[in-house]
């Protein structure tokens, strides 16, 4: 049934089911990676053989607000027992929000042999599947890592400025979009000086793409969600949220499930744009217009 | 500003072990978060939600005879948040209200967790301590 749903997506091979993962525990060519918002969830029990990659403490450079250098990323992969010959399957909490983020970061370094386990950690546990506390010890690898490509899948603030008027998707909550608040409901204040959205951005909260059980909605449902948002095939699309995590989920949907060619994630997102000197914002529920330049 | 003995002992426990083992200690605390007494479990609305945390957690402080009792509730899928609450409860519950009020608000930074848990996540614990102190202050 999952496989039938997957077959309708633009890139069916980007998703695997919980059953598929259960069948590939111990497969030497598959690495299962758990990536969560909660830094302790992996320790409470994880899919047997899975390794943990934490977005806060491992994927981000500790000093510069940026991702790891290619050299540091290579060292991380080596430590985790991952290399380019493996199929990498990500899963995590919160409807795979952080798993999608990790998958996107891996893609910046040319790691394309990656998949998400549809439904993530919640579906696995809801199905009563096995969890273990045994930390997987994988032999160190010597991975090939390309220099990070920051142009194809990633957008910076100047790219966004240049793109105003083209499809721009704000995937935060409606309250954050309109400017009532700068953080997600029930999330901590993360320090943007202005509340609102980037002019011309349409609001499509990321969670619309997920079912109750954390799986992705069907292709037809996803097409409907994006039907009237101005996000059309063939155009440059940029997605953003607060720090680039929720928009990774949307990036995955647009890129791999709906098959848009050019989709970039603006990871600076609102914590950067909402505090940048000299850029316009729009307040309220309408997208607003691009300022004349 | 001073640190109650129990809380100081917890700080020592964390900082005495290698960084790589501190997550496991936090997990132990998480698993030992005391259950809510039935009278509170049946009335979750009495507990105050801590919005600084990324996961749902609610806390309540009751001051009786000058001593503060602290209770908290958080779901199992939020082990970090449970761990933070458990540290504060084990370190502070039963202490005189005045002692609770004197805990430095930047106490979470002293646990040696910034690098392995991240400063952003630790903010949730600061939010919890702030609420515990405010509720305590309102009852003395």
UniProtKB/TrEMBL annotation, chain A:
Catalytic activity: thiosulfate + hydrogen cyanide = thiocyanate + sulfite + 2 H(+)
Record-linked CDD domains: TST_Repeat_1, TST_Repeat_2
Keyword Repeat attached: yes
Keywords for the protein's UniProt record, in alphabetical order: Repeat, Transferase
KW Glycoprotein (keyword) present: no
Entry's Gene Ontology molecular function annotations: thiosulfate-cyanide sulfurtransferase activity
Domain spans labelled Rhodanese: 26-133, 168-282
SMART domains listed in its UniProt record: RHOD
Pfam families with a match to the protein in the record: Rhodanese (PF00581)
Name of the protein described by the UniProt record: Sulfurtransferase
Species assigned in the record: Agrococcus casei LMG 22410
From TrEMBL, chain B:
Signal peptide: none
Domain Fe-S metabolism associated: 12-135
Top-level taxon in the UniProt lineage: Bacteria
Protein family per UniProt: Belongs to the SufE family.
Protein name, per record: Sulfur acceptor protein SufE for iron-sulfur cluster assembly
UniProt organism field: Agrococcus casei LMG 22410
């Amino acid at each position: 049934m999952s496989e039938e749903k997957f077959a309708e997506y633009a890139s069916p091979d980007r998703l695997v089911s919980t059953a598929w993962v259960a069948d590939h525990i111990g497969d030497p060519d598959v690495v299962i990676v758990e990536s969560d918002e909660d830094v302790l969830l992996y320790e409470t029990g994880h899919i047997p053989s899975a390794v943990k990659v934490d977005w806060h403490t491992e994927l981000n450079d500790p000093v510069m607000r940026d991702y790891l250098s290619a050299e540091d990323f290579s060292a991380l992969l080596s430590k985790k027992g991952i290399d380019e010959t493996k199929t990498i399957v990500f899963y995590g909490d919160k409807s795979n929000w952080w798993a999608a983020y990790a998958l996107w970061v891996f893609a910046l370094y040319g790691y394309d042999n990656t998949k998400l386990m549809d439904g993530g950690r919640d579906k696995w546990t809801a199905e009563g599947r096995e969890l273990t506390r045994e930390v997987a010890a994988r032999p160190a690898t010597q991975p090939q890592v390309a220099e990070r490509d920051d142009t194809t899948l990633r957008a910076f603030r100047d790219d966004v400025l240049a793109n105003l008027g083209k499809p721009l998707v704000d995937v935060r909550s409606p309250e954050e979009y309109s400017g009532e608040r700068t953080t997600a409901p029930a999330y901590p204040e993360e320090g943007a000086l202005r509340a609102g959205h980037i002019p011309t951005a349409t609001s499509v909260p990321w969670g619309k793409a997920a079912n109750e059980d954390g799986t992705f909605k069907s292709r037809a449902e996803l097409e409907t969600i994006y039907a009237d948002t101005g996000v059309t095939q063939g155009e440059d699309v940029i997605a953003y949220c607060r720090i680039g995590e929720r928009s990774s989920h949307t990036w995955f949907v647009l890129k791999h499930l709906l098959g848009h060619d050019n989709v970039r994630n603006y990871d600076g997102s609102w914590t950067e744009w909402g505090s940048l000197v000299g850029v316009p914002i729009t307040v309220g529920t309408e997208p607003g217009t691009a300022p004349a330049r | 500003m001073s640190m109650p003995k129990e809380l100081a002992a917890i700080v020592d426990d964390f900082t005495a072990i290698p960084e790589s083992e501190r997550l496991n200690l936090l997990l132990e605390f998480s698993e030992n978060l005391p259950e809510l007494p039935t009278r509170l479990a049946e009335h979750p609305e009495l507990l105050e939600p801590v919005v600084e945390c990324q996961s749902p957690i609610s806390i309540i402080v009751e001051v009786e005879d000058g001593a503060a009792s602290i209770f908290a509730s958080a779901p199992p899928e939020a082990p970090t948040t449970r761990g933070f609450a458990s540290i504060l409860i084990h370190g502070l519950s039963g202490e005189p209200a005045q002692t609770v009020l004197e805990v430095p608000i930047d106490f979470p930074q002293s646990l040696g967790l910034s690098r392995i848990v991240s400063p952003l996540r630790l903010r949730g614990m600061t939010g919890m301590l702030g609420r515990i102190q405010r509720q305590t202050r309102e009852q003395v």
